[in-house]
Amino acid sequence: MSEFLLIAALCVLGTVALGLVVILRGPTEADRLSAAQLLGTGGVAALLLLGVATDTTGVADLALVLALLAAFAAVAFITPFGTNGGRADPVAQPDRPQDPE
Amino acid sequence: MSSVTLFGLCGAALVGLGLFGLIVQPGVLRKILAFNLLGSGVLLLFGVIARRGGGVVAGNGSDPVAQALIITALVVAFAATVLAVALLRRLVQETGRDSLDSDG
Amino acid sequence: MSVALAADAGLALLILGLAVWTSIARTAGGAVIGFMAYGLLVALVWVRLAAVDVALTEAALGSGLTGFVLLGAAARLPRDAPAARPGWGLRLAAGVVSAAVAAGLAAVVLLLPVSAPTLAPAATANLPALGLGNPVTGVLIAYRAIDTLLESVVLVLALIGLWSLARDGDWGGRPGALRSADPSPALVLLAQVLPPLGILVGIYLFWTGAIAPGGAFQGGTVLAAMWVLTLVTGLTRPPRVGGRGVRLLLVAGPALFLAIGVAGFWLGGAFLAYPAGYAKPLILAIEAALTLSIAVALGLLLAGPPLAQSGPRA
Amino acid sequence: MDSLATLASATWGGPLLVLALMLPVAALMLAFVLGGRHAERVVLATLPIGLGVAVAIAAAIIHQGAALHYDLGGWAPPLGVSLHADGLSATLLLTTAVVLCAVGLYARADFRVPPGVSEARAPLAFWTLLLAVWAGLNAVFLGQDLFNLYVALELLTFAAVPLVCLSGSPQTIAAALRYLLFALMGSVLYLLGGALFYGAYGTLDIPMLSARLASGDPIAPAALAAAALMTAGLLAKTALFPLHLWLPPAHAGAPAAGSAVLSALVVKASFFLILRLWFDVMPASLTHLAAQVLAALGAAAILFGGVLALRQARLKMLIAYSTLAQIGYLFLVFPLVANPAAAPILDLGQTPGAWTGGVLQLVSHAFAKAAMFMAAGLIAGALGHDQLRGLGGIGRVLPMTVFAFALAGLSLMGLPPSGGFASKWLLLSASIETGQWWWTLVMLAGGLLTGAYLFRVLAPALSTRGPPLTLVKPVERSRELVVLGLALCSVVLGLVPFSSFGLVQIGRLGATGIGLP
Amino acid sequence: MTIALTLFTIITVALGVVFFLAGTVGLLRFPDTLTRLHALTKADNLGLGLVVLGLLPQVAWPFGGLKLIAVWLLALLAGATVGPLLGHAAWTQERGREPPP
User: Fold this and answer.
1) D297 with D390, same domain?
2) Residues 279-318 (D) with a CB less than 8 A from some CB of C
3) Can you give the CATH number for the domain in which B63 is found?
């Protein structure tokens, strides 16, 4: 049984690793991010299989954390926060005097 | 060759790659990324050392002392990354560029 | 060659490939996405190296929060042509040095002593006296408590450094890097549904750290991520940097750690020693306070330097 | 009540070490929470206590004639971490406390919370970072565990980098960023070395490592690689030529009080660890070749830094390049101490004078450079700029400041009577005694260069011709006194008889045989 | 009973692996970003769901099982939120890139 689960984990991981080609290819960052997402889901699945197969403490927790944070980093890329919350981020404030040294 | 040795060699290569990037990359964000590669290569090597130690004694574990040190180092690396990125963003605000002048 | 070894070789190759991609990708965003995928695979390697505690930290901090910070930066970089690469001489020299270091390290890995010296037995043998089941937590909170104490101070310090990048007129305002003017409905949904679950997971990670992989750093990181989600969508507001409450929260962990450490002079016979029989509750108290402080510190690190509130500026 | 502690040991006076380490940490947290005007008060209240602790540690070491030691948490190494103070640590703890006291008094005028607000950015950052620098330095000087020292180094980095860009100008932001990247590369390489040591010997405790390395077995390749990586990383943090690029803009860009701390103390921490590594961890592996290479880099730094200092247009940049050169002297210690023929030069018992000379250079440069940067800060504050060409006649307006600057310069040049003279004399004698005449030449050339670039400052400053200067801002007499006091410290060091420097020799691991096999 | 459960696990996990494969193929083969995203969401939801379903009989109840289900729900949530966000980002990015005819 555990051999089967291990091999399944390997298959999942190998499959999503193919998706990495897309990360390399693009063409848009959205493609790359979706490939990273797929890798994340695949990683979670592989971890779950691995955890059950080897009965290691904590591996399921790791999968839980990965699943929890799967969407987290992508938020930073997609959300226009900080850009129009009252002040444009990448623009210097010309009228603001420099602090005296 | 065992898996542990394999990951050790991987760590060694990552250290080389990160070091090269840290010196050569012109953009600051790329330098920060290179630093992170370098750091994770170093920790991977540490992890290999931990696995050897833990594996010999506890049968199927990793040396907890080394693991604790790695966790501490990971937190430091994160804080460093945040500070560097904050400096970079301030630099971009001020100068509109993401590179340090000249030499690097 | 066994299946496991083949799998590990594949994993190592993938990691190296992603590292190379991260170094050579044409856009900064592409490089960062490559790095996030890399971090994920490195977490898998930590599992393969039987270091689940590290894997948890790597997944939460090394891949999750670092990815957030770097992606946020990459999305806001100027799209100018990058600066000129350094000259051939420097690149060649750097290449030679880096290759030499890598080759030297590879040789060292192959030549490591056959009998691996380790502190694992000592670390495990002393655990029952501390009432712990996870030796990593024992190292972090007891044997090498000083490192963890200083480390938690480093986080506060990083935050002071970050805040010091504010403009003078903005001091006393709220961190503004995460303010989103118009979060999409999908994002708001995420920020409403995820945090309750995430907070549960964070507390669970801290709690289970005494006996199983987990602990203050991992739990605190998850809590911080959840807080940041609500900050991005405006469901909560970041505290003013001048407020005393938030500063108390930030130092609660290290301060309690220090206080119990000082009490150890009299109660445990040494600084940072735990009195026998009371070790477990004291350790849990320290871990709880640390989790909280770490969560606040990491969240505020992501939230950036303070900005003055909109409206007329003094 | 029973303790879990077993086998742990502490010498009498050991808790003082805990106090020295934890006092700034506790003060840091207190200053941060109270904030506002309280931050400054917390610092100024803590500094004298810290000075007292440092004096007590030095006194305890002299009294016992042996190093102090404390096992933290009651866990003995290798599982636990211990603190350890030998004579060298005590000397540096004391130097740090004195310099920081002066900086604290000096900085009050620059980092006052302006009236009308309860808290301002720069004051809060400065006062808390000052305490953090102090904590980091004490942790480095007391650390006995390679990883604990890594955390200490990082503490120092996180404290020092924001100090560079307190003014917020684009140049200082870039300088801080470059400093951070160099420092991070340095610490990562250091960490890698620590990991390799752990992999080879299963401990990170310095005495244990040293015992394992000296046991007679061939040294593991991992240990050699570790030493090389750690040295490279620490050199980057010490800004030894050719890894010096980050230092001048960073040290010149910081506010004067910050520059003083960075140049006088922070770079010394990583040098201190190089000493620990080569003289405590693996003294037997310091080959002649390695020692000569380190010293050659030091020599290059002396000449290169001196020449570049000559070409600077700004006073603070000139002082920063001078730091580069003065760091070079420190590295001459390696071949001079490592030569067995270097044994007693002066009547210092069985210990080599080069060691004392090196430590004296460390201390006297700390005093002199802090005084110089703070004097430059006063001048820049008074004139509104620090261009060398605009300094004409400043000596008439700020005689005490310029006098302090000149006194500090005396020490940098190595002219008698000054601590710099004593240190350079000891190093020169050692180089002649051991027949390494080429280092003699370098030191003499370095002295001439130092004289030349200081002349560029002092000649116009002391000139009596030219129109009278108008000051942008008056200079407070108390601040001038602080600077003068520090400059006098660097001079007085040279008036103390050599025999009283026995402290720096106490607790050397190989007290009788610092040298090559 | 045990055999039946084992068989159930093997079949469902294998099916899950197939879905992961399908997701990757979609990511590689579909012509534009939006359809690729669609493929990704399928793989996320179904592949991981099947793996979780298959593993349920193999873990301790209630805690282990609940953890597995939580992982799946989290992945669903991530897919449901990041998908639209990415789609939006991709749409604007591709539009912004196209020159007006």
Assistant:
1) yes
2) none
3) 1.10.287.3510
| ipTM (interface pTM) | 0.92
- Whether B68 shows a pLDDT value over 90: the answer reads yes
Torsions phi, psi of C256, nearest 5? -65, -40
Provide the number of structural domains found in chain B: 1
- List pLDDT tens digits, range B8-42: 999 999 999 999 999 998 889 999 999 999 999 99
With beta carbons under 8 A apart, name residues in chain A contacting C218: 65
How confident is the model over C124-145, as a mean pLDDT? 90
- What is the span of the domain harbouring residue B8? 3-95
3-state SS, D231-243, equals HHHHHHHHCCCCC
Q: Are B20 and C103 in contact (CB under 8 A)?
A: no
D15 domain-assigned: yes
Does D215 lie in the same domain as D298?
Answer: no
**Count of the separate structural domains present in chain D:** 3
The number of domains in chain E is 1
pLDDT the model gives residue C83:
63
**Can you say how many angstroms the Cα of residue D39 is from the centroid of all Cα atoms in its chain?**
25
Give the residues across from D75 on adjacent strands.
D6
Distance from the Cα of A60 to chain C's closest Cα (Å) equals 10
Domain stops at, among D144, D178, D196: D144
C162-177: per-residue pLDDT in tens?
Answer: 999 998 888 888 887 7
Could you tell me if D356 and D381 lie in one domain? Answer: yes
Report CA C220 to chain centroid distance, whole Å.
9
Tokens linked to D406 = 């000149």
D316 domain-assigned? yes
In degrees and rounded to multiples of 5, residue D6 shows phi and psi of -135, 145
pLDDT in tens, D16-26: 999 999 999 99
Domain boundary assignment for chain C: 1-76, 87-117, 120-314
| Residue C142 contacts A, CB cutoff 8 Å | no
Residue with tokens 């030349």: D452
Chains that touch A (3 or more CB pairs under 8 A): B, C, D, E
E74 reaches A (C-beta below 8 A): yes
Residue of D126, D167, D378 to mutate for A, most A C-beta atoms under 10 A: D167
Hey, where are the domains in chain A?
2-78
C-alpha neighbours within 13 Å on the C-beta side of residue B18: 28
What residue numbers bound the domain in which D387 lies? 286-507
Would you state the pLDDT for residue B99?
Answer: 79
List the single residue in A with minimal CA-CA distance to D167. Answer: A101
Contact D382, D475 (CB under 8 A): yes
The pLDDT tens digits of the residues spanning D438-491 come to: 889 999 999 999 999 999 999 888 887 777 777 888 888 999 999 999 999 999
| Set of chain B residues whose Cβ sits within 8 Å of the Cβ of A92 | 93-94, 96
The reported pLDDT for the residue numbered C311 is 39
Would an 8 Å CB–CB cutoff place A67 in contact with chain C? no
Token representation of residue B85: 């990125």
CB contact at 8 A, D447 and D410: no
